Amino acid sequence: MPGDYIVKDIALAEFGRKELDIAETEMPGLMALRDEYGESKPLKGSRIVGSLHMTIQTAVLIETLVALGADVRWASCNIFSTQDHAAAAIAAGGTPVFAIKGQTLVEHWDYLDRSFQFPEGANLILDDGGDATLYVLLGARVEAGETDLIEVPTSEEEEAIFNQIKKRMAESPGWFTKTRDAIKGVSEETTTGVHRLYELVKEGQLPFPAINVNDSVTKSKFDNKYGCKESLVDGIRRATDTMMAGKVAVVCGYGDVGKGSAASLRGAGARVKVTEVDPICALQAAMDGFEVVLLEDVVDSADIFITTTGNKDVIRIEHMREMKDMAIVGNIGHFDNEIQVANLKNHKWTNIKDQVDMIEMPSGNRLILLSEGRLLNLGNATGHPSFVMSASFTNQVLAQIELWTRGETYKNDVYILPKHLDEKVARLHLERIGVKLSKLAPEQAAYIGVTPEGPFKPEHYRY
Ligand code: NAI
């Protein structure tokens, strides 16, 4: 349907298209899938709702899904992460997209709802952080009278989703249940969304199969790590132009994102300290050469604070009260509750520019808060570079093909793509960067118990 989109400015489409053309040259995995499946169109008949940062890289993902036969409607999974020229290019190409950088929370859920409105109904979800899945499942539970949660929102976010659910229920009674029952599966992009899916399985509430894309090795050990290594400092620089060399930076969490983030700051010359709760990750940080500290002990002396935990209340109001004047505070984890931003609301905020605020604390000290505590690499910069997103999104496309073509062979559980596909994703990215891969002699393969074509590692291997 013409005009079936909400973007900032459709005139940005030409600029978006030029950047898309460049991104394609850096996304060999996605382009190889177009070559491999462009004719057979394994996604024909699928109607995919995408809820994932509407960036240039995502635009290449969307066009790959379409090239493979899918019908697609898209929303962003974060209010600050859209690149308006990418959204415009996708809309101009005829795929409905609902995403504007700086949209409100109310718009966030409205746009997500719109991305579900295929005339014949959606049948697959491609999620990042789990909001699309949550929307349908929560709505269906409310319709079934299973939860009265909806009457007592405890945050602005909850109020926004609950109001949207009520609106949809009033407009189309039974819509959530019908939609839930038509969904054949979901592929989930990130650690936080995957966490939500495993919780649903534990509660017996997952009504369709899910593929955990995050835990493909070629996703979490690349995007979360090497992606953040490039995009964290990019975000801090674009937001503040601060001199990084010599500053003391604290990275909370030393998982995959924390490892990339600490490396990013060290690469820029900062003196980096790490906080952790897991002794294994704490030991890794120490042996990678980072001082592992308690946040309380460094809170009044460090210059930059970054949360990477996927947990809540990591930087709390009592920490921020102790910070020195002009300390920079930001989060690169999926949700904004890692930093107690809500507790800063009654302080004096001065907006410096989009996604950069200065907040005056009771002591008179000021903090620079990035992206209101939402993931700053996408809020203040443009997220990870195309090449690493190609690996992530190649996994996404393979997961969607699997769910669409063989979904009925899966139970309502969470699955990881088989190792041979993980290795395929890596293989598709070697040539672009001139990697030459050695070959196993048959005797060598037999000696280590694999075949010369792979898989090369047992399932329990951790990379
Ligand atoms: P992870 O589970 O590998 O790492 C999180 C680490 O934080 C763990 O080692 C955990 O022990 C630690 N942690 C938890 N609570 C803590 C606390 N109170 N203090 C200190 N450390 C604590 O997860 P991963 O893959 O690193 O993802 C982290 C977050 O980043 C998730 O929300 C994920 O969805 C998000 N993400 C963001 C990306 C971006 O581009 N901004 C890219 C990929 C993931």
Automatic annotation (TrEMBL):
Quote the subcellular location field of this record.
Cytoplasm
Q: Where is the S-adenosyl-L-homocysteine hydrolase NAD binding domain?
A: 224-383
Role played: May play a key role in the regulation of the intracellular concentration of adenosylhomocysteine.
Q: Which family does it belong to?
A: Belongs to the adenosylhomocysteinase family.
Gene Ontology annotations of biological process type = L-homocysteine biosynthetic process; one-carbon metabolic process; S-adenosylmethionine cycle
Q: What is its EC number?
A: 3.13.2.1
> Quick check: keyword Membrane in the entry?
no
The record's comment on cofactor binding reads: Binds 1 NAD(+) per subunit.
Q: Name one Pfam family in it.
A: AdoHcyase
Q: Which GO terms describe its cellular component?
A: cytosol
Q: Which domain of life is it from?
A: Bacteria
Which keywords does the record carry?
Cytoplasm, Hydrolase, NAD, One-carbon metabolism
Annotated binding of substrate, by residue? 55, 128, 189, 219, 223
What are the required cofactors? NAD(+)
- UniProt name for this protein: Adenosylhomocysteinase
Chief localization class?
cytoplasm
NCBIfam families recorded for this chain?
Answer: ahcY (TIGR00936), PRK05476.2-3 (NF004005)
One example GO MF annotation = adenosylhomocysteinase activity
